[in-house]
Amino acid sequence: MAIKSFQGIRKASKKEFDAPILVSDYMTTKLVTFAPDQSILEVMEQFAKYHISGGPVLDDNGFLVGIISEADCMKQISESRYFNQPILDKSVEKYMSKEVETIPHDTSIFDAACIFDKHNRRRLPVMKDGLVVGQISRKDIVIAALKLSGHNWK
Question: What is the rounded average pLDDT of the residues 73-98?
């Protein structure tokens, strides 16, 4: 009598780990935004109030026109000391960075890490269909990498 080779019921193949790895999975969506005509003093107060170091500047239609950071505020502070004047009520538009690097919402965190490394920025506005939908920071990328550290990256 012949014996057939029988391996038994096979286990279901293990699915690949499907972790969220897009910028949109880790970005901040509740942003503090600023207006070009807003006072630089108001911006500094909001930085302190919300414990942030920068944010996007949007026009009246919600389109990105710049980004303001603590470093930009330092220009105002140093100028006021140089000219021995109080910090004046000047507008954000004068101090904001107008050339803003942005990142698409569907970029992987790995590509985002390369962009941060290449451009030496602390934060990037996240864009979808020409509008700001969030902001991603270096810290957000580090947190995402820590969450994925126990899995194989392919």
Answer: 74
What's the whole-number mean pLDDT along residues 69-89? 71
Q: Residue 60 is encoded by which pair of tokens?
A: 């009246």
Return the beta strands (E) in the chain as ranges.
54-58, 64-69, 103-104, 123-128, 131-137
pTM above 0.85, yes or no: no
Domain-located, residue 13: no
CATH number of the domain within which 142 lies: 3.10.580.10
Q: Which residues contact 103 (CB under 8 A, 6 or more apart)?
A: 23, 112, 115, 124, 125, 126, 127, 136
Torsions phi, psi for 94 (to 5 deg): -70, -30
Domain extent, residue 57, equals 23-148
